[in-house]
Amino acid sequence: MDRQAEFAALIEQYTSGDGMLETALPRVALAKLSKPSEPMHGVHQPALCIIAQGRKQVILGDSIYFYDASQYLVASVDVPVVGQVVEATPEKPYLSFKLNLDPHLISELILETGLTDEIEREGAGGTLSTSLSLATVTPELLDAVMRMLRLLDKPRDIAVLGPLAEREILYRLLNGPDAARLRQIAQVDSKLQRVTRAIAWIKQHFTEPFSIELLASEARMSASALHHHFKQVTAMSPLQYQKQLRLQEARRLILIQGSDAASAGHQVGYESPSQFSREYSRLFGAPPLRDANRLKATPGALVPA
């Protein structure tokens, strides 16, 4: 069995039905789908995503990130995206591995490996780029991921050997094409960290109206700098980001909690039911009730982006 086939077999071993599985490994989740999915809106957390089998596309703003087992995806901040599995069959299901990135672990590794010198050469902010990127999966990175997954067979080893496998994975990333992006995740008071503060504030207060000046004060940036850097990273303005969070939460309330459209819209901050229905339809392609019925009738449609 070659390395790629073994990777797919490892994931399939621990995923029985379609969906996302949180594992006993901290920050690690596995996904399986036996057919292509509906486009699914969600907030992508800072994470490493590697596909073992199948293909997927992730849409951020006007950019489409299309990848398969040959590439991995890294997300550097929480960002609203549209994810869709585009290649999967019952015989060869879509299989993927996700590791949520821990900034503290990345910081520790940077200090231990002497990469702080590179941060100093980049300056206080470095160059910002869009929060998603693709890079080639190397044999070394894939080997580290597979060693981590094999620990699921030996639960007693996870506490000791799991952190070692995670550190190796992060080390491989820090020595790859996404090194600068990962350093910005961990760098205190970098431009990316300031944008991350703004994102965290919006996520906490997304049902409330706000001004760009208030948000800039929270991020410790000027209003013009925040607007510019926020759009560089997320491909949207702060107000567009807030709207995405509102509509995604309203969709969750309707689907999971059974709220009616008017109540869901009011709960997430909309005063006008007609405006809520209009913006919901524009984002999700159908009014709330029709959208909810369609998703409930589509197995696997609710797998997170």
TrEMBL record:
Protein name as catalogued: AraC family transcriptional regulator
Organism placement in taxonomy: Bacteria, Pseudomonadati, Pseudomonadota, Alphaproteobacteria, Rhodospirillales
Endpoints of the signal sequence: none
Record's keyword annotation contains Transcription regulation: yes
Annotated Gene3D superfamilies: Homeodomain-like
Domain named HTH araC/xylS-type: residues: 196-294
Top-level taxon: Bacteria
Record key words, sorted: Transcription, Transcription regulation
